[in-house]
Amino acid sequence: MAKYEFWFVVGSQFLYGPETLETVEKRAREMAAELSRVLPYPLVYKVTAKTNKEIADTIKEANYRDECAGIITWCHTFSPSKMWINGLVNLQKPWLHFATQYNQEIPNEEIDMDFMNLNQAAHGDREHGFIGARLRKPRKIVAGYWKDAEVHQRIGSWMKAAIGVAVSKDLKVMRFGDNMREVAVTEGDKVEVQTKLGWQVNTWAVGDLVKEMNAVTESEIDALVAAYTAAYDVATDNMTAIRYQAREEIAMKKMMDAEGCRAFSNTFQDLYGMEQLPGLASQHLMAQGYGYGGEGDWKVSAMTAIMKAMGENGNGSSAFMEDYTYNLTDGKEYSLGAHMLEVCPSLAAGKPRIETHPLGIGMNEKDPARLVFEGKAGDAIVASLIDMGGRLRLIVQDIEAVKPILPMPNLPVARVMWRAFPDLTTGVECWITAGGAHHTVLSYDVTAEQMHDWARMMDIEFVHIGRDTTVEGLEKELLYNDVAWKLKEF
Ligand code: MN
User: What is the average pLDDT value for the chain, to the nearest integer?
Assistant: First the structure.
């Protein structure tokens, strides 16, 4: 992910004379260099903009350059905003307006009219804010002193959301088989999704995957099985099943890499010519950053890939998840999430075990090998993208993952247990009211604020279920959203 950078575009004008402009540029370079040391991606100083053309040219270049994942603007001095219009109307990259100031304190003795002319962010950033609002451009606004750790954290967090935008616009999803028969929520308009989010979602024949599997060599399998046994405990004698999963992983990876796909989906209803539903295979691919969705759910697969890329080091602790069952005892209200096999080991609290068990669903000739583990404790979110017909809605709920309160020794799959906010039953009522899916992406290192930033940059509806959400309030919000999004279509 190191290829991405962000551009620092500083607003000014000729009014103050060359000396002031030199100081602005010197300081802007210093700020970009120092911020680059503490932010997750480099911030590259681009220009102290004084004319319409300088701004328009910089934004044209930002749009064109793949490595530029977004721009950060700031007005050290007053920068009249009409000269930003021609550039900003064409801006296609994420935009953060950083309302900051070079000096932290007002210097009692030093302050005079020269100081006032040079340090004008307090009104320069308001002029800049007006044109963003007037143009209805999606932007993130972060205000605060540029050396504050909290400011760094907020800008860094936005940068990762902007990386999610870059990954989304470039994302290819490989579908093996169609969606599970009769399921509604895993459906969606692929043309709409490609237009809005950039995703190229296409299908490949399971027969072609089987052909690729048959071409995998024993030595390729030996190498991958060695990687499995180095990373995981082997808790089965069935090495044949593990080797078969390795064969599936190698074949799927070759096909995805040949097409540049970073996400895939498959379905237990279409495994023609395969002995096992990929379990360990899908889990180990997810651990490498590939997105996955079960039952043909290409939307959750794509979201998993994007949220992984938004996480720590470009492959964070985010995974395909499914709400399975509840514990409804008073005071011990928890959700239990799992899937029939495919939970990413990036969620694991300890070292996962490779086990083999029968799978009582779908067309499995042999018992599939899978990783079994408990999810770690910690603050997290679950996210679901649904197609409302005419628009996309992203629903995010805050949760707190806990160490599972029961050992569940006969449950043959990885499991995560969590407390939902505002509480389990209100949360369920809110989630169902909003139409959220049973499939989600569960993430420990992407926040609701980052998902909100991402949704704003992608121009899709965002619904957040958090500690203060009520069903009544949410119903109103959804009604207003419906009206607003219908108006936006015209
Ligand atoms: Mn499922």
Answer: 96
Residue 439 Cα, ligand 1 centroid: separation in angstroms?
Answer: 6
Kindly give the distance from the C-alpha atom of residue 173 to the centroid of ligand 1, in angstroms, as a whole number: 18
Q: CA–CA separation, 205 vs 223, rounded Å?
A: 27
Whole-number Å distance, alpha carbon 321 to ligand 1 midpoint, is: 8
pLDDT of 419 above 60:
yes
In which band, very low, low, confident or very high, does the pLDDT at 444 lie, cut at 50, 70 and 90? very high
Q: Give tens-digit pLDDT for 322-352.
A: 999 999 999 999 999 999 999 999 999 999 9
Cis (ω within 30 of 0) for the bond into 94? no
CA 208–ligand 1 middle distance (angstroms): 24
- Domains of the chain are 5-166 (3.40.50.10940), 172-489 (no CATH)
Q: How many helices (H) and strands (E) does the chain have?
A: 15, 19
% pLDDT > 70, the chain: 98
Output the CA 139–ligand 1 centroid distance in Å.
35
Measure 106 CA to ligand 1 centroid, in angstroms: 58
- Distance, in Å, from the CA atom of 216 to the CA atom of 341, rounded to the nearest integer, reads 23
| CA of residue 341 to ligand 1 center, whole Å | 9
Taking only the tens place, the pLDDT of each residue in 463-472 is 999 999 999 9
CA 195 / ligand 1 centre spacing (Å): 26
Model confidence band, residue 366 (pLDDT cutoffs 50, 70, 90)? confident
DSSP string, 116-170: HHH--HHHHHHHHHHHHHHTT---EEEES-TT-HHHHHHHHHHHHHHHHHHHHHT
Measured in Å, residue 382 CA sits from the centre of ligand 1 at: 15
- Lowest-confidence segment of 252-266, 329-343, 359-373 by average pLDDT: 359-373
